[in-house]
Amino acid sequence: MNFNNDQNPYLLLTPGPLSTSSSVREAMLKDWCTWDDEYKLLVQSIRSDLLTIGGVSAEDYTSVLMQGSGTFSVESVLGTVIPSEGKVLVVANGAYGNRMATIAERLHIPVTVVCGGESNTPDLVGIERELREDQSITHVAVVHCETTTGMVNPIEAIGKLVKQYNKTYIVDAMSSFGGMDISIQNIGIDFLISSANKCIQGVPGFGFVIANRLELYKCANQARSLSLDLYDQWVTMEEEQGKWRFTSPTHTVHAFKQALQELKEEGGIAARSERYRTNQRRLVKGMRTLGFETLLPDADQSPIITSFREPVHEAFSFYHFYTKLKEQGFVIYPGKVTNQETFRIGNIGEIYEEDIERLLTAVEKSMYWLEPIG
Known about the structure:
alpha/beta; seven-stranded mixed β-sheet
C-alpha cells in the first residue's frame, strides 16, 4: 500500500496511533446516532468479537468499551475494581508500569511497586516475596508489552504467582492484544485492557476491557469516578443492549468494526502476529547491518516496537534524523528510556515487509553523521 500521497504522506512506525487501511478510514465517513438500534447492535457485535479474539466464553467473561485513550481504560479499571480496603502491587519496568502506579497514587489506592529497571525483566522472586509478606495486597497489575523498551513481560509466570496467592490479576495489554497470542483464561487474567488504535489497527477514541464476570460483579458502587466507572458502563451496555452511558465515539466505533473484519480476513491473531514478527526481524537485521544496536536482547524483544541505541557520534541529533526520515515518508518515535539515549521504531499497523525494506533504504540515506566533513 502506498502512503506517499496527499492523504497519508508518511507511514507511522509507532506503537499507536498507527497507519491504518483506507477501508478503516473510509468507515468514518458517515455520521451515526448513539441511540439508534443499528448502532447499538454494532456495539454488541464488537463486544462479542473481542471475546472471540480473546478466546474466552461469554459465560465466564464479558467486555466493556470505554471512551478516551487507553490510559482512560487503565484508570477505569484501577479506580473501579480495587475496593477501598484494597491494595495493588504494580510490576513496573518502564513508563507504562510506572503510570499505573501513578494512577493508583492519584486515586489514593495503596500501592507497592516492584521495579527491577527498564532494561530488565520483572523480578519474579521480588514479586513472590511481596505477595507472601504483605497480606494486604489484593490486586496485581503489569504491562504485557512495555513499549518504553519493547520488552515482553512474562505474564504467564507472574499469573501463576498471582493465582497461587489468590489475588486479582490486571494486565495492560494495550500494545499487544490482537497482535500477540494471549491465553486470558489459562493465565488467569481477570481484567485485560487494550485500545482501539493498537494491534486491531483501528483509530484512537476508545479503549476496552475484557473482564472476568465474577470479579466484575464485585465492583458495584466502588468506583472512584463517575465517567470512568467501569461497572456502571458495563451495566448500561448490558441492560440497554449496546448503549454507552455518555456520548460514544461513533466514527471510531465503526472504524474499529471494519478493523476487526480485516483482522479476521488476514487470518486472525496467528497471521497478524507472524506479519509483525517478520517485520520486526527484518527491521533488526537491517538496522544491525547499518551499524545500529538494539537496547534489548532478542529473547526479551516483542514484535511490536524495538528500541535502538542512538549512535555515539557528536554530530548525531535524533530530531535531525527524525526529520530526514519524515521527509522520505516515515515517522519514528523518540526514546523513552530514562538513563539511555535511544529511539524506537514500531512495525505494527498496516505495515508490510516491503515497507520495512523501504524504511531501511531511507535510514541509510539519512545517516548524515557519517558524511565526510568539508
